[in-house]
Specification:
By secondary structure, this protein is an alpha+beta fold. It has 2 domains: 144 residues, Immunoglobulin-like; 63 residues. The chain is 44% helix and 21% strand. It is built from 4 helices and 9 strands. Strands 1, 2, 3, 4, 5, 6, 7, 8 and 9 form a 9-stranded mixed beta sheet that branches. Strand 6 and strand 7 form a beta hairpin. The termini are far apart.
Length: 275
């Protein structure tokens, strides 16, 4: 019901703006009918609270006002009433005690035997001189061919309204996620900038700490040499071992020492071989 009322209100505003009619732009209030779709023979009932403080040409003293069913979404142009417009009833009006400007208006009528389509519920007094009273313009209904069609179209409208609300919620959620993603990106970039600044500051402090040590080495007449790391020590030990191996191999190549006699001289056989 609330969805149908909002649709009727939107249709009223659009109709007041787009449909050519005398002083149509002065209207702002429209009848809210109990249903949107009717079949001939149904009773249509509409209510509205409107303000007399409007720009319509009609006034409270110009009562009574009558409701006309005008096909095709057309309007009444006083003093001429379209030939196919049907008067369906008198509009009841009463002032509200809460304000001298507010009026409660209602209309109910049995939908005549007309062809299916969109109809304007237009107003005019007698003789027809004013179609808008205060800010009340009239209303809109749709006549369909059968009760089944009326129910089907109502269900379809409700489904479309729910879909529109779901899409609006989804779009709102997507916009929220996009804003959150943008905030996360800004925070990440800010954190990266702070990290870079920290690294630069530490590098600067390291350079300042190394400068006095280098200056002290120059004053002592020593050039700061590279520190011997683990790889350097491995190379030193390897070279030492290689030297020992080469020394042992050199001794093996020299051959065995010749045996000597008790007096310390070389054995005659070895002495001959040596010769």
């Amino acid at each position: 019901m609330r969805c149908a009322r909002w649709v009727a209100l939107f249709a009223g505003v659009v109709g007041a703006v787009l449909v050519p009619a005398p002083s149509a732009v002065a209207g702002g209030s429209v009848f809210q009918f109990d249903r949107r779709y009717y079949v001939p023979g149904d009773v249509a009932t509409g209510h509205v609270t409107y303000s007399l403080h409007g720009t319509g040409s009609g006034r409270w003293r110009d009562r009574p006002y009558f409701a006309y069913l005008v096909p095709g979404g057309r309007w009444i142009r006083p003093p001429h009433i379209p030939a196919d417009a049907l008067v369906v009833g008198q509009v009841r009006m009463r002032r509200l005690p809460s304000s001298v400007w507010l009026v409660r208006a209602s209309v109910d009528f049995r939908v005549p035997a007309v062809a299916p389509g969109a109809f304007t519920v237009a107003l005019c007094n007698r003789p027809c001189r004013h179609t808008i009273v205060g800010d009340l313009t009239g209303g809109w209904i749709t006549v369909v061919g059968s009760p089944a069609e009326a129910r089907l179209r109502t269900v379809q409208d409700n489904a479309e309204a729910r879909q529109a609300r779901a899409l609006n919620r989804m779009e709102g959620r997507i916009r929220g996620l996009e804003r959150q993603h943008a905030r996360d990106q800004r925070e990440a970039l800010s954190g990266l900038t702070r990290l870079r600044d920290r690294v630069a500051a530490l590098s600067e402090r390291l350079g300042e700490a190394e400068s006095p040590a280098a200056a002290a080495g120059q004053r002592d007449g020593r050039e700061p040499g590279p520190a011997v790391g683990p790889l350097g020590w491995i190379l030193v030990i390897g070279l030492a071992l290689l030297s020992v191996v080469l020394l042992l191999l050199g001794r093996r190549k020299a051959g065995p020492r010749p045996p000597r006699l008790r007096d310390g001289s070389v054995h005659p056989d070895f002495d001959r071989v040596g010769r």
